[in-house]
Amino acid sequence: MRGPALPMGGSAVRLARAQWAPLAALAVLSLLSALLAVAVPARTAAGYDRAAAAAIGPTADLRVEGQAQGGAAWSAIPSQAALESGTITWQQMLPRSLAEVTGEPEASITTERMAVDGRFAAPRLLYLSWDFGAWQRIRLVAGERAYNPATETGGDIRVMVAKEYADELGYKVGDRIRADGATARITGLYVPADPGDPFWAPRARMLHVVKESLGGDGLQGDAGTALMDPGGYSRVARGGDVQFLFSWRFPIRGGEVDAGAAGAMAGDLDAFRSAVRGHGGIFPCDVVTPLDKRLTAFAGRLHTARSVLGLALGGLVAVTAGVLLLAAGLLGERLRPVLGTMRARGASLRQLAVPACGLTALAVVPPAALGYAAGRLLDLGPPQPAFAYAIAALVAAALLISAAMVWRERGGGLGSVADRRDDLVTVRPSPRRLVLDGLLVALAVIGVVLLRRRGAGAGTDPLVAAVPVLLGAALGVVVLRGYPYLLRAAGPVLRRRSGAVAFLGLARASRQNLVGALPLAVLLLAATVAGFTATVDTALRDGQARASWWETGADARVEAGPVDDAALARIRALPGVTGAVPARIITGVSAASNPAPMTVVGVDLDAYRRLAPSVPGIPSGSGVLLSPLAARTVGMGPLTLSRPGMTPINVKPAGRIEHFPGQGEGTAFAVVPYKLVAGEKGFPSQVFVTGDVDARKLRAASGRDVQLRRDVLRNLTRGPMVTVVHETFRDGALIGGVFGLLAVLLVLVVGARARGRTVAQLRALGLSRRQSRGLALVEIAPVLLCAVGAGWVLGLLLPDITGPVVDLRPYTGGFAATAHTPGPAALLGLAGALLLAAAAAVAVDRLFDTRPGTALRTGD
Q: Are residues 205 and 105 in the same domain?
């Protein structure tokens, strides 16, 4: 009676011991894959949330504002109850996404800006405000609280001012301030009960003097806000035609805004604005907030980050899955002799599944669950449910590999094992495999075409993340098809060499089957991820550096001010300064043919180009250059430019200039030779400085504010979202490289025993230990060089292939960051990875070095 020989009980334990290397590798890889599948996306999502909070800012607010004048204002809002009723109305209209992140509303009524009567060093401006939130947050230090009885109809309006404001302008209790026909008497001085309270951030005028512009000529006045009570508001409103600003402020708790909430807020903000504009009952109101620009900018940065990081993470997922499936495949290959023996003794396919699928499940399921739990316990960010499904899919795929190995034995008998040979060099691909390979290449091409057609709008579509994987897989197919021909071509060349190591190594590399060649595909994808991240990261840094030059114009720029020849000489004499070029800035200039104002920038362009050749967008040549707006306004014909206090100059534009440092985007300006305006006095100047500049010394020498290029670059490179992109690129490259090395090490360790026997036979024939180490290097070299070389080239080309999806302009001040060759660090990392792989081959050869006397039996 014949029965199957099943490895039950102690036999199963012995089988597990015999296959400890692939089982341990599969368990470790399952643990790491599950851990990374939880930790990396959660950490990235947490970075997105931090970037959203930073984009909103700690002082952001949402204000419903309306204006009314005199008696109409008092009729609409006659009391505190009416003001609070408006607060409730607007609060109830807030959409859910906005209501969840707004704090307690703050209502206030403030007069229009009034000019204070008198002669002062600088004009004084006064606002009168009824803000009962401020009344609750002050502490009186002199005098008494302002109180205006409702029965009074004349006399001074009693107010309170901040002690710091009074000290700055020389006011004291009892002083009167007359402004635009109204007289306010100071009854008390106060200080904030808590100076660090965020309430005061948008109310700086209530605490101290604030400089405010009085027009386009640069004149500034000293502005402050005095607090009055409801009685004071009533008197001002009913006693004249003063314009009032009614404001219901909803502070935004920026720390509670995550990336998802920021996306919902953008749409709800428009809906809330429409509802406020359509609301009747009081005077027309509108929504005023800085959130519009901030949310739009954040949405652009988030879209870019998700698109670019999706490309990198998609490749990283493929690398991780490839290594895990490689381990499962190697375990199946090691089990083939056992399965073949069992099948020859009559075991059914169901009975074969016990050792094959059972050992695989034991090595995959518990470690994957442990890795998932460890990732959740690390709490690196909000969990991403989709990646839990990805872990389950990887576990299922590993089990399917084992099931496929069992299915291969359906023919039965030892002959199924002994008579097959599927070396890469000798095996002929079946028509089915050729069709699948062609389909894969076609899918990759179609994916690229669709991606480029959809452009930046592709966003986080799964197609975006799949394109690098499809391209890598297609290239892997091409390399696998060409790999045998490369080995065949190298054979005759190596046969003519005197040494046998190269020929033997190439022969052993040729005897690898498809499972043994899987590291080629894994390494190719890992090199693609590393090359892509290194290229894009270099392009991003280069674009940010160009943007910093574009913004500053030099290593430092002294802001516009009265910089005379003596100050310029002091700047040039500073230690570390290698050059300084002045630029005369004259605003409010107009052409005789068109009164539209523009700015004249007088600078020696030749000297400036020599000083800062890295500034982009500065055209060659000299002469008069006009900005696009100026060219459209006054034309490109001969012009006479002048303004009061300036000698008219006759110019003939020679071309256009898109931007000049210090001039805003979309403004009208003309760049003229410095000699044309060098003699003009009373106009401010800028100085462009190069060298290792000390900001404090430069500020002391010029007496003006200074903008440093390194500060601009720091702001560009250290933004929360940019940090997320850089860190994810770095982590992706490191993880991809580690998994690639693990794939190499896995194949080396799993095949070490069989290789040791072969090397022992060669050692018996005279192979030395040194030659054995060289043989190990030659065996692994073809796979390493083909896979890493092809993958690295694909990674370098991937930014150009994906085209508009890799649009980094939101991080580079609008500059297109084109693909570049990776920096020295990335190239050193690549070389280091290849050396580590070679060292691993030598180390495994030494660790499993077997003496011929113990490995060979009599007769071998």
A: yes
